[in-house]
Predict the structure.
Amino acid sequence: MSRLPNDFLWGGAVAAHQLEGAWKEGGKGVSVADVMTAAEHGVPREITDGVIEGKNYPNHEAIDFYHRYKEDIQLFHEMGFKCFRTSIAWTRIFPNGDETEPNEKGLKFYDDLFDECLKYGIEPVVTLSHFEMPYHLVTEYGGFRNRKLIDFFLRFARVCFERYKDKVKYWMTFNEINNQANFHEDFAPFTNSGLRFNTGEDRERIMYQAAHYELVASAKAVKIGHEINPDFQIGCMIAMCPIYPSTSHPKDILMAQKAMQKRYYFADVHVHGKYPGYMTRYFERKKFHLDMTKEDLGVLREGTVDYIGFSYYMSFAISHQKSNEAYDYNESRDLVGNDYIETSDWGWAIDPEGLRYTLNWLTDMYHLPLFIVENGLGAVDKFADDGKIHDDYRINYLRAHIEQMIKAVDEDGVDLMGYTPWGCIDLVSAGTGEMKKRYGFIYVDKDNEGNGTLDRYRKDSFYWYKDVIASNGEKL
Ligand code: P53
């Protein structure tokens, strides 16, 4: 018997903009996800100036969960989910983001959704901001480059905490807040922080400023949340891709360490309530002169998180050779391949041991309960001649990762709250906007061009995961 607790939170994870659709219904406003087109592996999604007719915006309809959630939650229940991670679309509650009063229809939708989960004993796990801030906050305020965003976010957070305080116990503030460590590309700064850059601007400085405002907003939200309901468990959410040194060359070791610092200082601020020395020294050296007040630093100390939620899909590897003397990490430039590891069809390194490494690393660093809130394999699924989807590749991926997760609990003593594989029902890929990159236990009939009946089908992995949950991870 493994030592996974009996109340271990097995479930699945999604985000509002990737599955709800109904982008204009119930008073919803336009979000940053609504102005991103469909792309594919190697081709970035286009971020358009508003919604342009004739372009393919896959999030507008997504998988129409907005109208079909009852059927979908029933299927989650059939698999035995103990929890369901989703996000609240900010634009359903505050369509433009700067209103003073929330939109009742949006609030009612999530009341109904959470009630439907609770009816089956499924605990909602809720991310407040998952790549879907109101687009109006981008055009009018410049996204999180503007301090005003802290108050807009807090208004949203407070309304959610108050409205759902008796329905939702587990919260997270900003999804994968550290993706924007890759500020060289447009995707992460836009989805994390609503940042658009003019040519010649210092992207890096703007990103650190935006991240600071988010960290302050997160800390304040944690504090407000605990005042509203002391039983709330409020976590941060980090995209965890451990960065391995490519050789035992001391400079590679140091490069990997410095790169990890740049990707994960966000967690230090969330957990310890202050910036680590390596970051303050870096800001000084770069002469960033960030707007970081004494009051901000006090707020950070008062709003530290209860747990660390994180996604784990892949590991990275790094060599010092491409970097500079100071080991300044550049995510678009410095990463190298890892010969010991296979990759998915979308080039993501498949590394189950990396999950055990991650669980140990996060424990060593932060000594907090951990929650794996995303993990999974994006793959193409096809119906076989018998009319079924035999997704053994997905089962193999998940099994290997769950095995390592259990070792981390059993052998390493990691304190783990739960496991929610990503995209438990097929949905729109965040990175590419494709439907073809599927993660689900449940197949949704829809293709990249938006054709399909939207009917749902159980894949082989559906039955497999059901047994995993029923046996609390014994039957893999
Ligand atoms: P997609 C990059 C690296 C790691 C996780 O991603 C990432 C990304 C962004 O693409 O995002 C998370 O759909 C994110 C989800 C997303 C999921 O991973 O690109 O929290 O919204 O769908 C998988 O395959």
Summary: The longest strand covers residues 123-129. The first helix runs from residue 16 to 19. The CA atoms of residues 180 and 189 lie 5 Å apart. The mean pLDDT is 98.
